[in-house]
């Protein structure tokens, strides 16, 4: 009888141990599932933030490209005016004034900065993680480096400013009022091109206008390539989000 009782107690103890082990394993499994769910929720959130940043940056680039293209049209008009010796008009002055315009792009990077803070491995998809890192750390950095060249001898404004300074003068016959909300209305005079005959004969000016036109056209090409890369990354993010949902 004692042996039977011991056998029953032993079996009971083994059963208890098994139940405890099973309970621990289930608890660990639930804990792991909760942790994985939290990680996935964090990944989804950061991907949505990055997608929003990419979309906003894309819109900024497209806006800059549109303005660049408008300037390219006026550049062509000024070049034709010089080449064909077209009589002076305000349109020629306006085109020459616009020729030095540059348009700053500031990529939106808050989502990627958050990703770097919590860890790049938060994004489980290796190819997507690499694509996101490349566009923020390489392509966008290149855009910012292009902006830092402002003021150098290879910059559009630096090339054209000496010629604009040479030929622009105040046109006292054309005054205009600029209303201000918090200060007095301003009275400003327009500018015009002086010595227009010399302007038409200035081959150095013509050379720089052509050069800056080529540079601006190349900027448009580069920026549109970045837009294409942004679209690819956004599409990859959408596919990843769809898979996780």
TrEMBL record:
Bilayer-spanning residue ranges: 12-30
Keywords: Membrane, Transmembrane, Transmembrane helix
Entries under InterPro entries matching the protein: DUF6090
Protein name (database record): DUF6090 family protein
């Amino acid at each position: 009888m004692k042996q039977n009782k011991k056998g029953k107690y032993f079996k009971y103890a083994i059963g208890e141990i098994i139940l405890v082990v099973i309970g621990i394993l289930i608890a660990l499994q639930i804990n792991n599932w909760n942790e994985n769910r939290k990680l996935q929720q964090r990944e989804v959130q950061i991907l949505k933030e990055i997608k929003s940043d990419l979309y906003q940056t894309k819109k900024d680039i497209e806006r800059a490209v549109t303005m660049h293209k408008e300037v390219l049209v006026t550049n062509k008009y000024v070049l034709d005016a010089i080449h064909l010796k077209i009589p002076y008009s305000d349109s020629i002055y306006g085109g020459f004034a616009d020729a030095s315009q540059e348009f700053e792009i500031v990529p939106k990077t808050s989502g990627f900065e958050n990703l770097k803070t919590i860890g790049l491995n938060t994004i489980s998809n290796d190819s997507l993680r690499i694509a996101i890192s490349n566009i923020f750390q390489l392509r966008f950095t290149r855009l910012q480096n292009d902006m830092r060249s402002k003021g150098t001898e290879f910059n559009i404004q630096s090339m054209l400013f000496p010629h604009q300074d040479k030929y622009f003068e105040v046109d006292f016959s054309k005054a205009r009022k600029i209303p201000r909300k918090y200060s007095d209305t301003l009275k400003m005079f327009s500018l015009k091109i002086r010595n227009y005959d010399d302007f038409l004969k200035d081959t150095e000016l013509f050379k720089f206008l052509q050069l800056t036109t080529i540079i601006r056209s190349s900027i448009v090409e580069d920026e549109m390539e970045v837009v294409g890369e942004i679209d690819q990354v956004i599409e990859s993010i959408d596919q990843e989000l769809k898979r996780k949902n």
